[in-house]
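dumping this here so i dont lose it
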């Protein structure tokens, strides 16, 4: 009696489907974009904190330029602090380029969500105000019209671009993380905290 031979390889049918390897670099390029944004934006803060007003005379409010030129201690301290905060944001962007441990991931997502809201909010206010001035529905002193355009066409979009970079980097990080639901919660808390801070700043006129 002839022996039957199997035409197919039984091991092939029993072999489980290969698992998808998780990309260890979520949001890699967006994270680097956010890091570059923070690094570039830190340069003017440090330059002005060291006494130079290069590039500030026509692009920043005159009152702030005078404070920097006069070397007012508290204002110089603010410039140094904001410069280091921008460098910190750059480190957050780099951190979002690779999956980290759970605790570090929570911190990165929390900060990334907060940075995204703060920057988009801040830039959006500049753009909206500039558009209203250009449309004639809001007014500024004649000497500040050119400055308003700098905020409309430079600073506002620059903040928004940074916010979008942090948004994309943080979103991709959350999507690739093994506990994405938990990470979304931390991102939402960071974003909500930044929104409340922005609203308080707008109401009180501080910041």
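and the seq i came up w/
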């Amino acid at each position: 009696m002839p022996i039957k031979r199997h035409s197919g390889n039984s091991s092939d049918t029993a072999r489980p489907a290969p698992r998808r390897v998780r990309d260890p670099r979520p949001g890699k390029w967006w994270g680097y974009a956010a890091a570059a944004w923070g690094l570039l934006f830190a340069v003017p803060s440090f330059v002005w904190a060291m006494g130079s007003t290069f590039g500030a005379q026509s692009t920043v409010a005159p009152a702030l330029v005078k404070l920097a030129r006069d070397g007012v201690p508290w204002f110089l301290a603010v410039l140094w602090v904001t410069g280091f905060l921008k460098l910190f944001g750059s480190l957050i962007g780099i951190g979002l380029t690779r999956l980290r441990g759970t605790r570090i991931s929570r911190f990165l997502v929390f900060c990334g969500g907060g940075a995204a809201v703060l920057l988009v909010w801040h830039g959006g206010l500049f753009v909206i105000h500039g558009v209203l001035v250009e449309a004639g529905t809001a007014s500024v002193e004649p000497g500040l019209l050119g400055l308003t355009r700098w905020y409309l066409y430079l600073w506002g979009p620059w903040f928004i671009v940074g916010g979008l970079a942090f948004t994309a980097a943080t979103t991709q990080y959350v999507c690739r993380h093994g506990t994405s639901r938990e990470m979304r919660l931390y991102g939402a808390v960071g974003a909500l905290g930044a929104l409340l801070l922005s609203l308080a700043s707008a109401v009180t006129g501080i910041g």
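Confidence is low (pLDDT under 50) at residues 17-21.
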